[in-house]
């Protein structure tokens, strides 16, 4: 028992020491996930250490060697372009406002992530695990559990759900990397991501034009994400920017074969603000149409987790009470639509 307590103390000291080491970043780190797919324990921990440093210093990193089938991703991008090319009236038939889970289509300026702005200059289609109306979790009315809405568009649903499955698998691998980064057992999250809130967004950003005041209307206003972490396929058009401690906006360069990963609010809560749910925004100044595929990874809806033991101390007590993903994400999503 004494040895276990000593290990716990060393782990807490290592994480808490990083709270005093935050520096202003000027670029986004790139991390290869290849060791997370192997059996070399030391190599896995080395990747986890990179993840920890990125989460504490930046809140964002880009990943390579992730195992996602790029052909499946291309199919999802193609499906997104076909959907957004539909007449507005067709897209409106699957409006998010028809869904208590806020799944389906959201139009230009319909969502507003930054309360100081006048709306977000993008349209999107949201989906998640597609549970039937008779599923027990659907019947219970739990946020995150239920059916998707689907447009009347041939060959749309299969490629989109195929990509969703790829992202669920990748997020499970990343959960293991995050666990190791927090000095937790590698499988710590496994029992709590069996039926997760796993929301995929297909997003379309028209170019920023003089018609829209760039100070009040942009692709997405400055915000943090509500989930545990987000995995984004940005596409080739640059627009994503991350805010550093000096309030400078740092551009994230597109990485066609990689992904951007960022810490969400729930992970920041669990780590007692050691991991940073960093503000970011999207401003499409290129004159080109931009498409992206953000995937919002969370846990099973009703699992409650408070601040992790090794992320608090008498000098740094817990700053957050336990809360479930369903309560936290559901509340903020409804607020973003003014519901």
From TrEMBL:
Pfam families: 2OG-FeII_Oxy, DIOX_N. It comes from Shimia marina. This is 2OG-Fe(II) oxygenase superfamily protein. PANTHER family: 2OG-FE(II) OXYGENASE FAMILY, PUTATIVE (AFU_ORTHOLOGUE AFUA_2G00750)-RELATED, OXIDOREDUCTASE, 2OG-FE II OXYGENASE FAMILY PROTEIN. InterPro entries: DIOX_N, IPNS-like_FE2OG_OXY, IPNS-like_sf, Oxoglu/Fe-dep_dioxygenase_dom. GO terms for molecular function: metal ion binding; oxidoreductase activity. Keywords: Iron, Metal-binding, Oxidoreductase. It comes from the Bacteria. The lineage of its organism: Bacteria, Pseudomonadati, Pseudomonadota, Alphaproteobacteria, Rhodobacterales.
């Amino acid at each position: 028992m004494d040895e276990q307590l000593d290990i716990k103390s060393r782990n807490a000291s290592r994480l808490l020491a990083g709270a005093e080491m935050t520096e202003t970043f000027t670029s986004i780190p790139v991390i290869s996930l290849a060791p997370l797919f192997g059996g070399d324990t030391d190599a896995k921990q080395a990747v986890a250490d990179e993840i920890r440093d990125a989460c504490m210093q930046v809140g964002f990193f880009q990943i390579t060697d992730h195992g996602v089938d790029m052909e499946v991703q291309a199919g999802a991008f193609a499906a997104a372009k076909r959907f957004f090319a539909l007449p507005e009236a067709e897209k409106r038939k699957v409006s998010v406002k028809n869904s208590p889970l806020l799944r389906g289509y959201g139009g230009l300026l319909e969502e507003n992530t930054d309360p100081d702005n006048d709306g977000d200059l993008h349209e999107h289609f949201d989906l998640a695990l597609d549970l039937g109306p008779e599923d027990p979790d659907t019947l219970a009315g739990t946020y995150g559990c239920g059916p998707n809405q689907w447009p009347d568009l041939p060959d749309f649903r299969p490629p989109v759900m195929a990509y969703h499955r790829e992202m669920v698998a990748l997020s499970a691998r990343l959960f293991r990397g995050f666990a190791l980064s927090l000095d937790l057992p590698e499988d710590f999250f496994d029992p709590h991501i069996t039926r997760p809130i796993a929301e995929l967004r297909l997003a379309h950003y028209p170019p920023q034009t003089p018609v829209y005041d760039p100070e009040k209307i942009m692709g997405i206003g400055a915000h943090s994400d509500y989930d545990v972490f987000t995995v984004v396929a940005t596409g080739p058009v640059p627009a994503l920017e991350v805010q550093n401690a000096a309030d400078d906006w740092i551009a994230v360069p597109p990485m066609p074969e990689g992904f951007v990963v960022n810490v969400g609010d729930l992970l920041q809560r669990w780590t007692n603000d050691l991991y940073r749910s960093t503000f970011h925004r999207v401003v499409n100044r290129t004159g080109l149409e931009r498409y992206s595929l953000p995937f919002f990874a969370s846990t099973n809806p009703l699992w409650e987790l408070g601040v992790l033991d090794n992320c608090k101390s008498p000098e740094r007590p817990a700053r957050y009470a336990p809360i479930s993903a369903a309560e936290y994400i559901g509340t903020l999503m409804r607020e973003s639509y003014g519901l």
